[in-house]
Amino acid sequence: MDKPILVLQMQRMGDLVLTFPLLLWLRRLHPGREIWVVGEERFFSGMYPVSPEAVYFPWTAAERLATRGYSLVLNLSHRPEAAALAGRLRADEVIGPHDDAGGVRRINGAWQLYRASLTGCNRHNRFHWAELNALDCVPLAHIAATRFDPPRRLPPAERSVGIFVGASDAAKRPSPDFLAALARECLRRGLRPVLFGGPGETEIAAAVARGAGERLLDLSGRLSLTEFVAVGQSMALFLTPDTGPMHLAAWSGLRTLNLSLGNVNPWETGPYQAGHHVLRAAISCRGCWQCDRPALCCHDHFNARRTALLAERLVTRGAPGEVRLPGMELAATGKSPETGLYDLLPYAEAASLAPSARDAAGRFWQAFFGWRFGLWDEAMAVDAAAGLARFHPPLSAALGRSLPPFVRGLAKGLSGAMPEDFWRSAPPFFRPLASWLQLFLANGDFALPVRREALAAAEACLGLLR
Questions:
Q1: Does the pTM of the predicted model rise above 0.90?
Q2: 295 to 181, 292, 300, 368, 453: CA distances (angstroms)
Q3: Which residues are within 8 A (CB) of 356 and not within 5 positions of it... i.e. 6 or more apart?
């Protein structure tokens, strides 16, 4: 019997749902081979009907898993116990964090190490989590060729819209006052809002219902995940912050409008399938790793009346039309024809303008790392660097001035004397490279071949930007 593939995904519900595309690709690449998943039972037990074919195990079964051998162990968790388990298992190949024979934490796989380097440093990342899960073991051609069914479009008479009231982090959650106003505005436009939430969010839902001043159907805390998917079949739209239920809704074909606020980056964790929408504040600090402002200023940009109007257009027309959203940016999820990977496609004026400096930087780093890790050839990185110079000459000039101090700091690091704050002290544009270099060197114990590879990557980057 073929040795199974084992995936360790012991994070939250949304992380598990974003593993589903990986399971689908592995099933297609390895027909007949069993795929096992270790996860949180409270999440996977309710998602059997919509999960790709896999055998699920709870964490409590981890010790029994050590009695088998595996063709591949893929650890997608950052929990220490997951790395310890990955290091103990007998496997032909291990990808992701694992403890080596000496108890030292290592990361195998170029893309898993890249993802780890994004901790606190993800401002310019343009790779979606669902694809980062897979890029070390699934060819880009398979990912690029995958087309999921578009979200359902219900008959015009079906005007129920779900509003999810919770999120794992309070910073990602709209206030009850905003949600109450949103529900009122939806009612005013002939939509029928239905409140959703987990068992811990019933009080928030009750506050929203009271604030709305109308009788609302409140399903918070009353549905299993299986029931949530079933009820979602009757919803024309799901308005939601970045949550596990958002990913489950998108995976099951429920059209979503992601209210992306707080410390989330929709390039990483927006609805993965094409045809959904992401609404976020048009401010420079959006998509942060952790908010360091005195207040959550991105929340202030969301307007209940305009959001409800947008929802009504998406329900009745399937597209936003000419809705004006001052201070906001609306994008549709899709697939880039250039890379074959996840993309956010801006609407209205933003689509016809030159890319912002931030977007141009994000495109450059995606092209650069994709080239260095073998997804495509150098031409895409050369083109992205040329775009920086063409659309943002002042930024390009500033990068040239910041190269010498960055190179001096890197030279110290390559000698083995890299300070802990190396990446944080780098110019902001260069931090994706600095963070990856720092982790890459440490992961390889600053060995000579590792230093040579790090130097080659740095020289390649600087050569593009000179």
A1: yes
A2: 21, 8, 9, 35, 42
A3: none
Q: How far apart are the first and last CA of the chain?
A: 55
The amino acid at 355: P
Q: Which residues pair with 342 in a beta bridge?
A: 335
Structure token pair of residue 10:
């012991």
Lowest mean pLDDT among 323-332, 362-371, 407-416: 407-416
Q: Which residues contact 222 (CB under 8 A, 6 or more apart)?
A: none
Pairing of strands 72-75, 94-99: parallel
**How are strands ordered across the β-sheet holding 72-75?**
55-58, 35-39, 5-8, 72-75, 94-99, 105-108
CA atoms within 13 A on the CB side of 459: 8
Residue in the block written with tokens 């931090």: 431
Share of the chain above pLDDT 70, in %: 97
**Which residues is 279 bridged to in the sheet?**
259, 330
Question: Is residue 47 within 8 Å of residue 252, measured between CB atoms?
Answer: no
* DSSP line for 421-450: THHHHS-GGGHHHHHHHHHHHHHTTT-HHH
Distance of CA 122 to the CA centre of its chain: 11
Is the model's pLDDT at 241 over the cut of 70?
A: yes
CA distance 111 to 161: 37
Residue 222 has pLDDT above 80, yes or no: yes
Quote the CA–CA distance of 441 and 455 in Å, as a whole number. 10
| pLDDT range class, residue 291, cuts 50, 70, 90 | low
Rounded Cα gap, residues 322 and 320, in angstroms: 6
Report pLDDT for 414.
Answer: 79
The rounded radius of gyration (Å) of the Cα atoms in the chain is 23
DSSP per position, 140-185? HHHHHH--PPPPP---TT--EEEEE---SSGGGS--HHHHHHHHHH
Task: Count Cβ atoms below 10 Å from residue 154 Cβ, excluding itself.
Answer: 16
Domains and CATH numbers, the chain: 5-145 (3.40.50.2000), 160-352 (3.40.50.2000), 378-465 (no CATH)
Say if residues 314 and 256 touch (Cβ distance below 8 Å): no
